[in-house]
C-alpha cells in the first residue's frame, strides 16, 4: 500500500504554524515512517505535486502567487486543512484590509516612510502583485478541516495527523477535534 502523501504550504503568515509543526519533535520521525512528505517550505521542492492526500496550509491569501498556489493545491489535494488563524480567518495578515487599496499600504510603507531610496518593490517575476484584500483560504477554495490557533499547538496538529493517517475523517468542534 502506498504511504499517505502529506504536504505543507506557507502563504501570507509568520511561519509560526510551521514552527509549531516542527515542535512535533521526535514524532516527525514517526510521521516520516508512516507518510511521505511531498512538499513543504522546509524542503527544496519547487512545484506542488499531484495526488496529495492532505495539506496543511498556513497563512492567508495576500498576493497573486498565493491565489495561483491555492488553485494548484486544491486541484491536486484530497484534504485541505486551513492551518492556523491566518488561514482560517485572515488574522494578522488581514490587518491591511481596513487600510483600503493595497496601493495605499505600499505607498505608506515603501515611499512615505522610507528613509533611503523610496520605491515600490515591483520586480516582475520576483515580487507578486498584492490581492485587493487579504482573505482566508476558504474564501478562495473549499477547505475540509479548520485547525485554528496562533499557532495551533503541536499536540493538536499531531492529533489531526494521527487521525488522517488512520483513515478517519476529521471535524473540528470547539476546542477539541472530533473524528468520525
Can you characterise this structure?
The chain is of the alpha/beta class and 180 residues long. It has a single domain (4-179), classed as Rossmann fold. The protein is 31% helix and 26% strand. It is built from six helices and nine strands. The chain has helices at residues 16-22, 27-34, 64-76, 85-89, 102-112, 154-165, and strands at residues 4-10, 35-39, 52-58, 61-63, 77-83, 130-135, 145-147, 170-173, 176-179. Strand 8 (170-173) and strand 9 (176-179) form a beta hairpin. The model has no long low-confidence stretch (mean pLDDT 91).
Mean pLDDT: 91
Beta-strand content bin = 25-35%
* Secondary structure tally: strands: 9
Q: What's the CATH superfamily, by name?
A: NADH:ubiquinone oxidoreductase-like, 20kDa subunit
Using the coordinates above, name the CATH class. Answer: Alpha Beta
Radius of gyration: 17 Å
Task: Note the overall shape.
Answer: elongated
The order of strands across the largest sheet is: 2-1-3-5-7
Describe the largest sheet: 5 strands, parallel
Low-pLDDT sequence parts: none
What is the succession of H and E elements? EHHEEEHEHHEEHEE
Number of domains: 1
Notable features of this structure?
180 residues; alpha/beta; 31% helix; five-stranded parallel beta sheet; 9 strands; two-stranded antiparallel ribbon; Rossmann fold
SSE topology:
Layout: E1 4-10, H1 16-22, H2 27-34, E2 35-39, E3 52-58, E4 61-63, H3 64-76, E5 77-83, H4 85-89, H5 102-112, E6 130-135, E7 145-147, H6 154-165, E8 170-173, E9 176-179
Amino acid at each position: 500500500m502506498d504511504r499517505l502523501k502529506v504536504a505543507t504550504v506557507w502563504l501570507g503568515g509568520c511561519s509560526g504554524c510551521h514552527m509549531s509543526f516542527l515542535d512535533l519533535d521526535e514524532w516527525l520521525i514517526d510521521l516520516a515512517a508512516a507518510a511521505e512528505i511531498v512538499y513543504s517550505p522546509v524542503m527544496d521542492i519547487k512545484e506542488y505535486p499531484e495526488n496529495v492526500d492532505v495539506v496543511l496550509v498556513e497563512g492567508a491569501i495576500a498576493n497573486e502567487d498565493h491565489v495561483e498556489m491555492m488553485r494548484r493545491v486544491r486541484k491536486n489535494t484530497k484534504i485541505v486543512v486551513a492551518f492556523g488563524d491566518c488561514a482560517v480567518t485572515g488574522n494578522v495578515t488581514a490587518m491591511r484590509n481596513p487600510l483600503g487599496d493595497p496601493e495605499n499600504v505600499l505607498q505608506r510603507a515603501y515611499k512615505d516612510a522610507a528613509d533611503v531610496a523610496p520605491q515600490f518593490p515591483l520586480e516582475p517575476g520576483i515580487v507578486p502583485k498584492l490581492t485587493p484584500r487579504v482573505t482566508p483560504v476558504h474564501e478562495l477554495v473549499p477547505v475540509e478541516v479548520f485547525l485554528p490557533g496562533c499557532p495551533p499547538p503541536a499536540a493538536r496538529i499531531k492529533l489531526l495527523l494521527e487521525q488522517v493517517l488512520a483513515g478517519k475523517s476529521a471535524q473540528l468542534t470547539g476546542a477539541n477535534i472530533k473524528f468520525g
